[in-house]
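Figure S4 source data
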Amino acid sequence: MEVCRIRMGQPAKAKLSGWQTTEMLNFAALRPHQNAELITQQGIDNLNLGRTNPTLSRFMLALANREMITVPGRILNGPDVFYKGKKIAKTNGGSWNMRDIKVRKHILHYPLRPLTLFP
């Protein structure tokens, strides 16, 4: 008989129980600093990225430290969305309001006539 041991935290394609679903949602809702701690502590070990990784050593790569880098960031302004008549829709939070915006010309409306089918 063969035994397969799965390390904790490995993905599984089975349906989760109620308790497992709760645990997954709690894990997904962690604060950013908690995620950073998990990545720099458990994540490096779980992925075997420590100093003794033979694959990294073959390419002369090594993990210098367990600290995350900090990069400068900025918030970009939303794009201008132009419609017919050179109207600009105001963007806010990734969406825009189309009030008073025309997107096509009106077509002529003809009254509907009854449709008769012949066998």
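Figure S5 source data
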Amino acid sequence: MIDMRGRWRPALAVLSAAALLMSGCAKSEDDNAGSASTANASAAAQATKSADAAGATCTLQQYGGTKVDLKTAAIGFSQSEKEANPFRIAETQSIKDEAGKLGIPAGNLKTTNADSKFDKQITDVSTLIDQGVQLLIIAPLNSDGWDSVFAKANAKHIPIVTIDRKINAKSCTNYLTFIGSDFAEQGKRAADKMAKALNNTGTVSILLGAPGNNVTTLRTSGFKDELAKVAPGIKIVFEQTGNFSREDGQKTAEQLLQANPNVNGIYAENDEMALGAITALKGASKKAGDVKIVTIDGTKGAVQGIVDGWIYSVIESNPRFGPLAFSTATKFFNGEAIPENIIIQDREYDTTNASSDLGLAY
């Protein structure tokens, strides 16, 4: 009988080498994908624009609290709106992800969602206090009406970090700090983009955000003030709330198109309303680019809208508050002075970077 083992050895050696090569390639591709994902996450993270170092600050001693180890503390996070909006989804996930990275047990992070009902948010936060949380992170629905929460939290010396929207109250007394964007500056940047889109002349309609908070107020005043300054030839012919909602944004845009069918531009105070406006424009037989849309947020849907030609520019409002919220709380409990306002940097998207930076959107 002929021994075939010797004949197979060269073939087996070749197959083994090929397998090793393929394994190495697969690992390299996985590593590259992981590196790209990490790079995107790092680039997309919030960065501080200013911490108002010359302004009011607050220390643990001033606040009257006691030092807390976040890894063993009970922490409450109050979300204001339904997590159907990409901003809220990313915001809540950022808080949860950072808590996990810090080693905070999942059971120690207590989260609530007010479903866009202010009375429910007040009840939610009150319940969190009753449950013994030692730190509160709040994304407020409204800027006013928090007195009962302040009284209850202050009695137990529970620091409150507000994110995204600011509460009209006294820092270091009612709350610790506000972390968020410069909303007036966002409005100004949107006006500059609209002026460029329309060559400083034409008509514009505004889809206002929900009433009762400083985001809508400042994005509106910032836009109007800057537009009057840089492009007095552009007239605002319509403004009505779309409640930061895609559905309401579409309905409001349909109304503005009926009243002003030849409008040249739409300023939407968030991306969801802008995407609703696109649906309304399509229903009115408008083509991509017929009406210049400038919006604020930085969702993937809106940035893709630039690629598709429907949106002219997007001013970012970064929702990834987790790292900054927890690092601020850590510094506070370690005795460092915390500024009253911590303002983050926001990028912007247009045709020059929408395709390449789509991975940075949320």
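The chain has eleven helices and 15 strands. The radius of gyration is 25 Å.
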